Amino acid sequence: MTAAALPLIDRFRTIAESHPNKLAIADASGQYSYSQLQAAVAQVAGYLIEAGLSKGDRVAMVVTNSANYAAVFYGIWAAGGVTVALNTQAKARDILNWTDHANAKWLFIESGHGEFTEIANRLDQGIELVAVGEPKTEQPAQAQTPWSAITQQPSGMPNLALAATDLASIIYTSGTTGSPKGVTLSHANLSANIDSIQQYLRLSHQDSILNVLPFYYSYGNSVLHTHLAVGGSLILENNLVYPHRVVERIANEVVSGFSGVPSTFALLLGRVNLGDYDLSNLRYLTQAGGAMAPTLADKLLAALPKTQIFIMYGQTEASARLTYLPPEQIREKRGSIGIAIPNTKIEVRDKQDQVVAPGVTGEICAFGGNIMQGYWRDAEKSAEVLKDGWLYTGDLAHTDNDGYLYIDGRSSDMIKSGANRISPKEIEEVIQELDSVLEVAVVGVPDEMLGEIIKAFIVPKDAQQTDKKAIQRHCKQNLAIYKIPKSIEFISELPKTASGKVQKFHLQNKES
Amino acid sequence: MSAEAQIRNYILENYLFTDDQSALDSGDSFLDKGILDSTGILEVIYFLEDEFNIKVEDTEMVPENLDSVNNIVAFIGRKSQ
């Protein structure tokens, strides 16, 4: 097996044996060396094997960023399972929808999770609930496996051979009822992308990162794996609510890397004077999850003149990463998302699948070892985006004469708000459940800090029934906090085509 | 209206979407209970600056000052001294 195809769990095992005392992860509960993390990984794997896991079984997890997250995730791999890491902000309805769709046999969920009781009460038979972490007093007494069943396992790693082509992970990118989209990635997909990222970031065991990105998204997922594959260290900070604390930790923990989305950097630059801190060890920053405004990039360059800034672009369907802008080009190629990452091909194509000339807008298409296998149990949706091995991203762009890519828009109506990509359909489904609502259309509208915020246009059944709070309250009960519409407007009818399709661009134009 | 009532009503109205006072305990952690995220905290700061005529310094953006109604009331009290 070539190094490129070696599953990440095998690389982790090698690092843990060669650098047992190196710091792997520091979280709020403590610091964990590679050997300590490997012991925890082995315990999770030992439990799953003993509990009857067969190779390829899906194991879902709802765990916030922590050493436990890595232990469960790599433990599932070490046992031969497929990870299904779910959004920890999601409500029970989405979590149950995903576990059901993936036909998961186990659900690892943090003891203190706000939806624990609801999920425990509604979970189907045939799926075992495993409480992650020490029990909380308010936890119900439903049949479940306590964390102690894991920590009592022996700490020797099982020696299971995984094929590079075996399915490694399913990552859900939306949660619409009936047809959630689960991106399936093989061990080879993830390994290929991790190799490419390590190559252009020049990551080594000397690197450490302060991580604020959720691991359940592909961006955070790649940060976790790139570091554990080279023997680097991850210092976890689980929220950006208090930005100067984040910068304080970057300085105090002497980290070499930091990754964020445009709103991360807007928040840091807006609320913190970076010049007040010694950030001389910060070798690089990465930014993905939407185009960074050139003015924001300029401010970052001015505030951190010695730090390399990598602007990047990708999709979950590509394991994470597709392009990067070499830091030395950031001034000359303002606004560009760069060039293809190593070992990946990018073309901009028209609707007839022909490569367009520089300056002409087309769809970004990608080919490489990192491209997903397809959407889980959805051949139709898979065929829409995968053709002859090429991924059709749905994102529109053009190149300049040097081949650098510039995003021009996207053909899907996904909303990008902060680090989140949100399907409007999910929100529309929830709002439509209310008796007072006749029709609803949800769009993203521009926002300086978050890129976009969510706005719902609602046609009420009764023109007098326009209680915004009742709608937002219903959303809060059923949707993750970041999916609650910030703005609601009642209108008499939705703009539609002759065939009845809602013309969302008319609604968006109202806002711009 | 007391500062506590003003802050409680603002949180109830804008983040819990209700006027039911029992929906929020003044000691509830905004983060632990999933009431606010990072943009929500910024909105709360703008509200406090407007409503109480104070300036929240970046270094004062810490949970001890902002993560519950009680913490905010105490923080405003200290700022007003």
Quick overview of this protein structure:
The complex is a heterodimer of chains A (512) and B (81). Chain A has 512 residues and is α/β, with parallel strands linked by helices. Helix content of chain A is 30%, strand content 27%.
The assigned structural class of chain A equals alpha/beta
Number of helices of chain A: 15
> What proportion of the residues of chain A is helical, as a percent range?
25-40%
Approximate strand percentage of chain B: under 5%
Give me the secondary-structure category of chain B. mainly alpha
Tally of individual helices of chain B: 4
* Poorly predicted ranges of chain A: none
Averaged pLDDT of chain B, please? 92
Biggest sheet layout of chain A: 9 strands, mixed
Poorly predicted ranges of chain B? none
The largest beta-sheet of chain A arranges its strands as 2-1-10-9-11-12-13-14-15
Overall body shape of chain B: globular
**How widely separated are the two ends of chain A?**
53 Å
- How would you name the oligomeric state of the polypeptide chains in this document? heterodimer
Cα end-to-end separation of chain B: 19 Å
- Roughly what is the average pLDDT of chain A, rounded to an integer? 92
Biggest contact: A-B, 23 and 18 residues
Task: Report the count of strand segments of chain B.
Answer: 0
Q: What is the global morphology of chain A? A: globular
Q: Gyration radius of chain B, to the nearest Å?
A: 12 Å
Q: What Rg of chain A, in angstroms, do the CA atoms define? A: 23 Å
